[in-house]
Write a structure and sequence with these properties.
Distance between the termini: 26 Å
CATH superfamily: Ureohydrolase domain
Oligomer: single chain
Strand content: 15-25%
Largest sheet: 9 strands, mixed
């Protein structure tokens, strides 16, 4: 564990904990997202940009970022317990985990770990796909199924999905079963996304973005969100952000550095949002 900016902040500054989850064993089509965490970190601290967020908060000056490194995942069923335990430990010490996937299957153990500390969680989920399959291709832990596992386990009290544009009959039935609130991409407007009144979590599948914005994903779906759309949704939030994941960046599909830079930009803005919302008296 490395505090990247230990001298610039006060001892009582709330910490953002960057945690890499290099696994894609539960991917259904292409492997590759396991390679993403290190490339996102590299882009985050590259001289291509600086450490300032659009909220005016800077990594190392206003945002205490602790890099937990990558979990040593073996791509076995035991990985989920390891992820849950690590996330729960971060939360128990007052930290805010921002997890770098990896495929979207990791969101289930992340939420399980957070719920052990916070109780059932409100989730804001950006994605092209609802990831509500009961069992995708014989794998109930597939990256297409995390929100089915989360909802059936009672780990979330509210799930709002934004940017969905692949909603088939099965997932529509699953959404109705679990009471999921879906803002489909064809109906998207920033002011249609709720402004939460209670602590919330962000799960950001990078294929929520239009492929012109994020080419490096396994399942590109045209007609998606722009980075500005996501930032505008996040900027309206005032309740405490208690954690986040950024998943499904596949470096094998990337065309140059844009995809890693985009993922890193979103890490920085989520870290700033967590710092702002925890400090503004709403926690």
């Amino acid at each position: 564990m490395v505090d990247l900016f230990p001298s610039a902040l006060n001892d009582d500054t709330m910490s953002i904990h960057l945690l890499g989850l290099p696994t894609d064993i539960n991917s259904s089509f292409l492997r590759g997202p396991a390679k993403a965490p290190g490339l996102i970190r590299e882009a985050l601290f590259s001289d291509r940009g600086n450490q300032a967020s659009e909220l005016g908060l800077e990594l190392g000056h206003d945002i205490d970022l602790v890099d937990e490194g990558d979990l040593a995942l073996a791509e076995t069923p035991a990985d989920f317990d390891q992820i849950s335990d690590k996330v729960s430990a971060i939360a128990a010490h007052g930290g805010i985990p921002i997890c770098l996937g990896g495929d979207h299957a990791v969101t289930f153990p992340i939420i399980r770990g957070l719920a052990a500390h916070h109780g059932p969680i409100t989730i804001l989920h950006f994605d092209a796909h609802p990831d509500l399959y009961d069992d995708f291709e014989g794998n109930p832990l597939s990256h297409a199924s995390p929100f089915a596992r989360i909802m059936e386990a009672g780990l979330a009290k509210r799930l709002v999905q934004v940017g969905i544009r692949t909603l088939n009959h099965h997932c529509r039935a699953q959404a109705a079963r679990f009471g999921v609130e879906i803002i489909e991409m064809r109906d998207f407007a920033v002011d249609k996304v709720p402004v939460f009144k209670t602590p919330f979590y962000v799960s950001l599948d990078l294929d929520a973005l239009d492929p012109s914005q994020m080419p490096g994903v396994s399942h590109p779906e045209p007609g998606g969100l722009f980075v500005r759309d996501i930032l505008n949704v996040l900027d309206r939030q005032t309740a405490p952000l208690i954690g986040a994941d950024i998943v499904e960046f596949n470096p094998n599909e990337a065309q140059g550095p844009l995809s890693a830079v985009t993922a890193a930009k979103l890490v920085k803005e989520l870290a700033a949002l967590a710092t702002r919302t925890q400090a503004n008296g709403t926690a």
